[in-house]
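Entry type: protein chain
Record version: 2
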Amino acid sequence: MCVRANFYRRLQKGDFIECRALGGVAQMMMATAATQLVDCTAWFGYCGDAKAMAVDLRAGYERTEHPNLIVKWFAQLSDEAQRDLIASVSRIGPF
C-alpha cells in the first residue's frame, strides 16, 4: 500500500498527530480491514520497501523464508499446512 508523502503535510495538526499515533493511514486501513475481511486463511503481501515493511509488521504480518513475501494468518493451520500455503503463494512470484 502506498500513501503519498504530501498527504500528511496537508492534514490539520491535530489530525496529523492522531494519524501518526495510530501508525499512519496504511496501518489504520489494514487494522480496520483485519476486523472485517477475516473469512480467509491468510493475507499475503509482497513488500520490498523498508518503511512499508515496518508498517506491515506492526499490522500483524510475518516474514516468510521467501524474500519480500509476508503473511498475516487468520486461521489456525499446522506448521506443514502453513509451509505448503506459503510455498504455493511464493510460486506466483512478485505481485
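Comment: The helical segments are 5-10, 13-21, 25-36, 50-58, 79-90.
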